Amino acid sequence: MVRDDIAQLIAEAIRRAQKKGELPAFGLPEVPVTRARDEAFGDYASPVCMTLARVARMAPIAIAERVVAHMPPAPFIGKVEAAHPGFINITLSPQWLTQQVEVILAEGERFGHLDLGKGRSVQVEYISANPTGPLTIGSGRNAVLGDALANVLAAAGWRVHREYYINDTGTQVELFAASLYARYAQALGCDEPLPEGGYPGNYLVEMGHQLAQEYGERFLTMERGQALTALREEGLKRMLASIQADAAALGIHFDSWKSERSLYEDGIYGLVFNRLSAGGWLVHRDGAVWFTETPHTSSGGDHQATEEQQTEALVRSMQDKDNVVVRSDGRPTYFASDIAYVWDKLVTRGFDWAIYVWGADHQGHVPRMKAVTRALGLDPNRITVILYQLVTLKRGGELVRMGKRTGEIITLREVVEEIGADATRFMLLTRAAESQMELDLTLAVQQSNENPVYYVQYGHARIASIFRYARERGFSPEGGDVSLLIHPAEQALIRQMVRLPETVALCAESLSPHHLTHYAQELATAFHAFYKECRVVSEDAGHAEIGRARMKLVQAAKIVLANTLRLIGVSAPESM
């Protein structure tokens, strides 16, 4: 990437200045290079000289002037300047920029792909909503974040595995089964109340009627325990089919659907429980089993702790009920499943890295997961949790509180049916995960420049229309000389196009795919401005040469726009 190449050039310039005695000897720090905030100052800037002022005992601007004087030449560098109070500003070469059009055309769909991951494996686990109800719009944000991140990491050179974790055991699943039994019995005319704390949603009323029609009184004639088990399996199967359909409607497909129950059936839970117990990480109090962040035995080698530390750790664990691994009635908790699951990810299946996408309300669980990963003898840095904030829906400025169809929760399916999958994905990715999200349903369907997804997709469709128009008149990019692309609007468009690899790197390194939507809008803006100022196809014979060059430019812009939309998971329409 150009950004990294510039950093290397600056580092070399510092070393050269030191050899010449123009700068004192000091250890070379990392050289930060960022996009210039103001294009008047160039394309890139580095503040490294300001960080060197103390060790060099010189004014930052004086250091910058010496570094600039020793910058090695490079084909992509047009101009290098020192600027107060100590920045190094770099402007890309116009000639180099024009040649990038040919590079983009040659790389095609691979343009923007990197090798940051170097083929290492990463599992991205997302959505993973309990299969006890339909996916909500909040789950939709989880889905879009996880899927776009998986796309970005794959483009950045990781081997990506996408997984949905199915919570198919535990209290909530049993309540779901009991609630479904009640709705099924009610559909057959029985006076069966919902269980306390059960699920009151209309979706279970509908499912109960379906089961009554399909099976008649079969489950009523069974022993109640057997009936609950059978209905649990039947209900989970139907809910998972619904969830799979909702995910597919957003263009999301998983490599695997991992059952929580399988962690117990495969013996993984027993293995990790014994491992933690042997290491002194589990304590028995009040009939329950608790995880403590400091082992209570002296046989743990590097994990040895003083009696005082053990006591403090035990007190902390007892104050946090989420540290319970096994309840007093013998049932494992969700935390127990999470412990087995992290072992399954990192050891049994051997992923180099595991990424979880969770709602912000799980924030307190993150340090607990890091601690238990360490207790299992694994590197806690091999797991990363992305936390996202909730979504607020608006329609024309008014808050939307209930779903139209159910009169209750707002389901993901309702939103996708109203505004489409493309708008849902794009709009839910316009803010950083840690930011509150507002989704305006009215804006999402507007065919105007105010609608960001329409604005970006229209850029791609406009390029397709240019090529249709050109073909009708016998024009083609064949033989186009890209060195002619020196108009300011042409150069501005190319500048945006060559940013895609850096944007992919930024998204992958910060695990923040929302940068893609901002980049897409900036790229579309540059194209629309170019389209306004530079005619591509003209009947004027004297325009043919520059016209062929511009056709190459718009062909490259089409590739970059399509590649960006593909990473977001949004279609690139040929017409609108």
Key terms for this structure?
five-stranded parallel beta sheet; alpha/beta; 576 residues; 15 strands; Rossmann fold; 50% helix
Folded structure, characterized:
With 576 residues, the chain is an alpha/beta fold. The chain has 4 domains: 2-92, Gyrase A, domain 2; 171-252, no CATH class; 266-388, HUPs (Rossmann fold, 3-Layer(aba) Sandwich); 452-568, Isoleucyl-tRNA Synthetase, Domain 1 (Orthogonal Bundle), CATH 1.10.730.10. Helices cover 50% and strands 12% of the residues. It has 21 helices and 15 strands. The strands form 4 sheets. The protein has a 5-stranded parallel beta sheet with strand order 7-6-5-11-12, sandwiched between helices. Strands 1-2-4-3 form a 4-stranded antiparallel beta sheet. Strand 1 and strand 2 form a beta hairpin. Helix 17 packs antiparallel against helix 21. The longest helix is centred in the middle third of the chain and has 26 residues, at 224-249. The radius of gyration is 29 Å and the shape is flat. The two termini are 34 Å apart. 43% of the residues are buried. Residues 298-303 have low confidence and may be disordered.
